Fold this sequence. Notes:
Shape: globular
Number of helices: 9
CATH architecture: 3-Layer(aba) Sandwich
Oligomer: single chain
Number of domains: 1
Amino acid sequence: MSFKRKITLKNGDCLKELKKIKDGSVDQIYADPPYNLSGKTHQTVQSGKPVTLNKGDWDVIDDIDEFNFNWVSECIRVLSDNGTIWISGTLHNHPSIGTILKKLGLWIINDVVWYKRNAPPLLSGNRLAPSVELIWIASKSKKYFFNYELGKILNDGKQMRNLWEINAQRHLTKHPTEKPENLIERIILLGSKKDQVILDPFMGSGTTGVVAKRLSRKFIGIELDREYFDISKERISRVNSTKVILTDKKLILDKDKSEQVLKNIEDN
Length: 268
């Protein structure tokens, strides 16, 4: 499935679909892979009662290290020499990804801590309430694109740090791990230029594609689940304007800063 402005959506297994993409043809990758949280021995709380955690069959993986090694390797093959890969995770998946990035000889740029100021409280009283997710940033070499100046603009003229305070948002779709658009917007703005190719191998409900299209990037999205693929396809098709829409409320309220950001985007 393809839309105008070179939006390509693929319904299938990411390993099989990634093999069809040319070496070095992608400028930035954002991946939100399964965290392997689901299973008969995994529990969560609903309505105050413990229940088996089941996000879907796609979140049940026998060998998480092998799974991660295979898809990350394919992503690195298709990534350009000056591109970057951004991978979301939690403590359940993040260490595996970090080890694999090192094994593959990649240059690890940052580990971003996404702090959710409004994370829900924990009902049980035997551990700390989870309030963060983690994002690895890596490249093939030290010669990668990173929009440092835009990062400063977004951060009131100061160096942007690797602790990002971004509120969790009400999901726009039924996908259980949907990410906020303003989180993805920041990632794409910092790691790519206009008309470059963004790849999301675990597209989910299509947030990366929505933001990429809005920011005038080309996009390749891969999703295994047919229901979520259809949600993505419909959601991305509704983005009929390539005008930049800054989803950070502070930027919308600050006219001068918004104009700086828009100029920086056009210059790049």
